[in-house]
Design a protein that fits this description.
Blueprint lengths: L6 H8 L1 H16 L3 H8 L3 E10 L5 E12 L5 E8 L4 H17 L5 E8 L7 H15 L8 E5 L5 H15 L23 H14 L10 E5 L3 H12 L3 E6 L4 E3 L6 H11 L9 E3 L1 H4 L6 E4 L18 E3 L8 H9 L3 E3 L1 H4 L2 H15 L5 H26 L3 H20 L4
Parallel strand pairs: 3-4, 3-5, 6-7, 6-10, 10-11, 11-12
Antiparallel strand pairs: 1-2, 2-4, 7-8, 8-9
Helix pairs in contact: 2-4, 2-15, 4-15, 5-6, 7-8, 7-13, 7-14, 13-14, 14-15
């Protein structure tokens, strides 16, 4: 049964930190973790808030607020992106940092979880203003990041150029070039081949593993993707090449539908020319909220949090839900999807392709030797398939759904690392 949509319930449901805490508590209870370990794992190890001035192009001085949260460094340096958005909050960054801890543990790479953000409106800022904001923010957090401590990456409204500015600023402070301080960099500055496609490719890999349970092949699989950026756009492009039928793409301002499958390359060209997917001549414009509820085999929410909630979960028609975004499904919606027997590939597994290839980039930077793209993709597929099977096995062993299994597996691995290290006093 759905919860009554009172303001207090809605606020709690869409608060990402509350959602992360709810799922943590459920997994910890099933693992029978003791109270002390729960206290250690539940809270971030470090939270940093910085307020810094930047001179804008018109000469005005504006004060910006930024955050960097390190949730855990038990299994290695903190790892996680930096986002620029007007709605960045400390609760959001806390939740995303925790999700990064569990994500890295699920795919068993030697990182903990971190996340950062700056409250700003990138669309209203010039490139030079964005550079000054990035460099000043980097200077404010420079004592807390580094290849052995905390390794940022791109996230919402940041990209490889942002990472280049961070790497350069950090390097200037340290008086030598430190390429491994960030990942998601340009190839010329130590980036990795295959990194831009990695999250979308990872989504495709785990979706194909899930399809085996439904005896689906790419040719007879209808896919709806919400988000047409780095994750959704790449997933659409790669899945089309494999023969999938992408019937609907949903963006923040529009949605387009073609039951016979969209020509993704043509749609990308249309958006590049017009600034929107709306009005694509080879498809029908549909309501973007209704589009999420259309009949399909695979639904990939690949944009932002809180897309599938108590308000619409009971109308989701997909067989497989592959969470390309972080936190697209609220904890209240989890039980609804479970009742509907939707096969959920949770975010901390589904979109872990990005951090996996970020790990590869970090390794390559540190050893000064770079792999070709085929090697990157082969190693990514090996890790994603192994991790998918680890989660499915954990779900079967403990008789829980996939999301709970992923959390249990991650908590178990992080808790074991802490036990083996012991507590320094």
């Amino acid at each position: 049964m759905l919860l009554e949509a009172t303001p207090s319930v809605v606020d709690q449901e869409i608060n990402p930190w509350q959602s992360a805490a709810h799922r943590f508590d459920e997994a910890a209870l099933l693992l029978r973790l003791d109270d002390g370990m729960c206290k250690v794992l539940r809270m971030p190890s470090m939270e940093l808030t910085v307020n810094f001035p930047v001179t804008l192009d018109d000469g005005r001085i504006e004060l910006f607020t930024g955050y960097r949260v390190q949730h855990s460094i038990a299994r290695g340096p903190a790892k996680g992106g930096i986002r620029f958005a007007p709605d960045v909050s400390l609760d959001e960054v806390r939740a995303l940092a925790a999700w990064m801890t569990w994500k890295c543990a699920v795919v068993n790479i030697p990182f903990g979880g971190g996340k950062g953000g700056v409250i700003c409106e990138p669309q209203l800022l010039s490139e030079s203003e964005l550079e000054r904001i990035t460099r000043r923010y980097t200077a404010e957090i420079s004592e807390f990041i580094g290849p052995e401590r905390d390794v940022p990456a791109p996230d919402v409204n940041t990209n490889e150029q942002t990472m280049a500015w961070i790497m350069d600023t950090y390097s200037m402070h340290n008086r030598h070039t430190v390429t491994a301080v960030v990942t998601g960099k340009p190839l010329e500055l130590g980036g990795s081949l295959g990194r831009p496609e990695a999250t979308g490719r990872g989504c495709m890999i785990v979706t194909m593993e899930a399809m085996k349970r439904f005896r689906l092949t790419p040719e007879n699989t209808r896919v709806i993707i919400q988000g047409f950026g780095n994750v959704g756009g790449m997933a659409a492009r790669l899945m089309t090449r494999k023969g999938f039928k992408i019937t609907c793409i949903i963006e923040y301002d529009a949605a387009v539908y073609n039951p016979h499958g969209l020509d993704i390359e043509s749609l990308m060209a249309h958006r590049s020319e017009t600034g929107s997917i709306k009005g694509f001549p080879e498809a029908e414009d549909v309501d973007r909220f209704d589009a999420l509820l259309m009949d399909c085999d695979v639904l990939i929410p690949a944009a932002r949090e809180n897309v599938i909630t108590s308000a619409n979960a009971d109308r989701i028609k997909a067989k497989i839900l592959c969470e390309g975004a972080n936190g697209p499904t609220t904890f209240v919606a989890d039980s609804v999807l479970a009742e509907k027997r939707v096969f959920v590939i949770p975010d901390i597994l589904a979109n872990a392709g990005g951090v996996t290839v970020s790990y590869f980039e970090w390794v390559q930077d540190r050893q000064g030797y770079f792999w070709n793209e085929a090697q990157v993709n082969e190693r990514l597929e090996e890790i994603m398939v192994t991790s998918f099977n680890d989660v499915i096995a954990f779900a079967a062993k403990h008789a829980v759904n996939n999301r709970t299994a992923a959390y249990m597996l991650a908590l178990d691995r992080v808790a074991n690392a802490i036990r083996r290290r012991g507590l320094y006093a």
